[in-house]
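Design job #97: recover the sequence.
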């Protein structure tokens, strides 16, 4: 690997970005990250550019003199897009940062997508990169689908674009923590008394970061790569967490029909309290129809992607 390569990064303060930064530094890359506010916990070798995806000047400063851009910034939502920020960030922001990278002469653009860009039904059948992409659905899913298709359409000689699409990432370090990271700690602490009878495909954020690192000079331009692990129900997740902490956890399951009946009360509480709720119809749909058979064979072959066992990820999250 050429250690003189400069890597520009968006989303450095997020879960994946926080794992990527030290890995990039340890590989000897020059690293520059776009941040809204100075991040004291970043490795000191990281050059920080203050700004956001709206600022043309900040994006120009981010990409000037660099070679590869890793675009990890995104806004996740299970509550639609009432203020337009999901589309603004995930679609318009992606277009702005890609255009800045292309104009500055960067050679490769790595877009961090999501399994949610692909249609989740039929959820019991194999899902690979040939699965049709989302057209209708939640605002986040639509935004990731539109952005990914646009990014890959920009691939051309001298400016290569690739999309790397993880499933549900867990693993350390998770400083904020992420929604899943917080849920793991809450289950371990007995703060979640029951779950719905669905689940997710879980992968380790460190393995995703390694695949992104490999994609700096591997992978086929214009291609997408699914980065998955294994599907677990939330009830099984509780059992695994219990095994890690040495305390049996058996979470009862709430039927989905009851969850739907409770949705109006969740919306009412959010409106009265002014607090954001993650208990929405979109969240229930994601949980119920989470793809059970996500195939990462392409990433294994071409990016040397490997995903460790869930028990190892949970142990490191809870005991790290």
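Job complete. Output follows.
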């Amino acid at each position: 690997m050429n250690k003189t390569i400069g890597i520009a990064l968006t989303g450095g303060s997020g879960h994946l970005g926080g794992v990527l930064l030290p890995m990039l530094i340890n590989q000897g890359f020059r690293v520059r990250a776009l941040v809204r506010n100075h991040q004291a916990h970043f490795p000191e070798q990281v050059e920080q550019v203050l700004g956001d995806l709206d600022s043309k000047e900040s994006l120009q400063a981010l990409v000037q003199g660099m070679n590869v851009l890793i675009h990890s910034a995104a806004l996740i939502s299970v509550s639609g897009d009432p203020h337009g920020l999901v589309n603004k960030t995930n679609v318009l922001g992606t277009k702005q940062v890609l255009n800045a990278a292309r104009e500055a002469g960067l050679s490769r653009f790595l877009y961090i997508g999501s399994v949610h860009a692909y249609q989740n039904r039929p959820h019991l059948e194999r899902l690979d990169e040939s699965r049709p992409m989302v057209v209708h659905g939640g605002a986040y899913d639509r935004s990731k689908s539109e952005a990914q298709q646009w990014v890959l359409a920009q691939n051309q000689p001298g400016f290569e674009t690739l999309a790397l699409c993880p499933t549900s990432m867990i693993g350390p370090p998770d400083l904020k923590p992420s929604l899943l990271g917080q849920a793991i700690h809450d289950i371990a602490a007995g703060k979640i008394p029951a779950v719905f009878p669905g689940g997710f495909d879980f992968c380790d954020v460190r393995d995703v970061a390694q695949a992104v690192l490999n994609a700096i000079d591997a992978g086929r331009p214009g291609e997408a790569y699914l980065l998955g692990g294994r599907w677990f129900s939330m009830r099984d997740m509780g059992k695994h967490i219990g095994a890690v902490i040495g305390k049996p956890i058996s979470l009862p399951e709430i039927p989905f029909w009851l969850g739907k009946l409770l949705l109006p009360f969740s919306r009412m509480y959010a409106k009265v309290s002014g607090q954001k709720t993650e208990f929405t119809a979109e969240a229930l749909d994601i949980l119920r129809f989470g793809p059970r058979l996500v195939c990462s064979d392409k990433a294994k072959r071409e990016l040397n992607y490997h995903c460790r066992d869930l028990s190892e990820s949970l142990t490191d999250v809870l005991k790290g």
